[in-house]
Automatic annotation (TrEMBL):
Alphabetical list of InterPro entries matching this protein: Haem_Oase-like_multi-hlx, Thiamine_Salvage_TenA
Entry GO terms, CC: cytosol
Protein's recorded name: Si:ch1073-67j19.2
Length: 206
């Protein structure tokens, strides 16, 4: 005999007659239906989803992958018995790790290694130099782009077109970068980071 799910109206076998895998899905399929009709997925389907909303989604997804992969790595080291549960944690960890790595490869994150290299091998003032291209360039780009409030990306323009990076950087750089050698190195690192910013935008739509 079959039961009628109180939320979905679907027929399903009693839990004693079906495996837990199917039971859990059928018992909670109403949540799946609610998820399908969330504004995010509906606007994605219509093609008018705001870009900022999609970016927030992607950031959450990447954070999920990284954090859960770390948790699985911890779990596979803690769970030794039963053996099949350990094997499950091991398998899922490797699967998540592979997916996380392939997902992150789609993003141009190479510049992060340059930040780390500067942080570890240069005086702290040069890390400030490395941060400046992002602050200065994004402000400039936002003011150059010709977008109006109907654009899906107008929020990005508005959030980046106002700012005064000179208030944070100018006096500091002038104070600590005084010799020709210091200024030459600063310019070299600044250009490196400017090129990294360029590559970040360029790789987003190739």
């Amino acid at each position: 005999y079959y039961l009628i799910h109180p939320f979905t109206g679907l027929c399903y076998e009693p839990v004693n007659n079906i495996d837990v895998y199917e039971y859990l899905w059928v018992s909670n399929q109403d949540v799946a239906e609610h998820t399908l009709h969330t504004p995010f997925l509906q606007h994605m389907q219509l093609g008018d989803l705001q870009a900022d909303n999609y970016v927030k989604f992607i950031i959450q997804d990447i954070n999920y992958l990284v954090v859960v992969t770390d948790m699985l790595d911890e779990m596979r080291n803690e769970v030794e018995v039963p053996e099949d549960l350990h094997d499950f944690m091991e398998d899922r960890c490797e699967s998540y790790k592979t997916y996380a790595e392939s997902t992150l490869k789609e993003f141009n994150l190479n510049y992060l290694s340059d930040y780390k290299d500067i942080m570890e091998n240069q005086d702290p003032i040069y890390f400030a130099v490395a941060l400046l291209p992002c602050s200065r360039l994004w402000l400039w780009l936002a003011n150059q782009l010709n977008e109006n409030c109907c654009s899906a990306y107008f929020t990005w323009k508005m959030s980046n077109m106002c700012g005064h990076p000179e208030q944070h950087y100018k006096a500091l750089l002038d104070k600590y970068l005084t010799t020709p050698e210091q200024k030459e190195l600063a310019n070299k690192l600044f250009r490196q980071q400017m090129n990294n910013e360029h590559d970040f935008f360029a790789s987003s739509l190739e």
